[in-house]
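Sequence in, structure out.
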Amino acid sequence: MDPPLSNGLDACAAKLKRVESHIRDVERWIDAYAKNGYVVSRKNDPNSGEIIYRAARVKDAPLKISVVTGEALHDLRSCLDYLVWQLVSNAGNRPNRKNAFPICKSAEEFSGVTDRHLHGVPHAKVALIERLQPYHGSNPRKHPLFLLKSFNDFDKHRVLTVAHPVIWKNSYDGLPNINVAKVRVHKPLETGAELFRIAITDGTDPSQVEVNYHPSCHVFFRQEAGIRTLIPVYPLLEALRSYLHEHVFVSPGLATGFNWKPVKVQPWATWLGDGG
């Protein structure tokens, strides 16, 4: 039985609205985890004159972050397939189950799937879809559509491991007579991991020095699904939602003729930077 046709692109707009709800939930859960998901311990070393901060009792982030992130990715991906379905129908053709929005790594791959996935789509719209392909970007692996496909495909087979806390930034309030040792940030937050190290330069016993240390923790996707860079969960979802609205439904003219109602989003490049 063929899936029912939606009214224009109302289903796409509803999906993007639903993704916004998912993003707000994920943002709230990540903020709560960043505040309560781990404890920082301090060790004073009088011999070296250093104060060392380490992560202690790091908790696993809630599974619901992974589950709802997967749902958001699926909703975003299905928006693209819904669009192709409507392009076929709007041209007076009958959609079929093979119709889908292709996301390809090369022009050759795109050419190879056009007849199958874009059968019934007007040539002018096929050309617009081709221009959106990741291989046109300066860094295809950071292109929003490549990231969406990679993480959504991975989530089809297992739950995405997004609950991967990482120390993103260190800051402190203290005396001017201290030097901050170079401790790598953007590192996985694990029990026992060194987070921050400072040296007292005037000979004062470290135990007598008050320092207010403020680590900043974000939750990232694990380096899986073919992605080898750290990508924060919440900004990625915001970036993908913004990109689909700006560059798929609005800018290229794919939604022309559907009375597309703009969705309020921030420019996608403000979240992750331009991968195109």
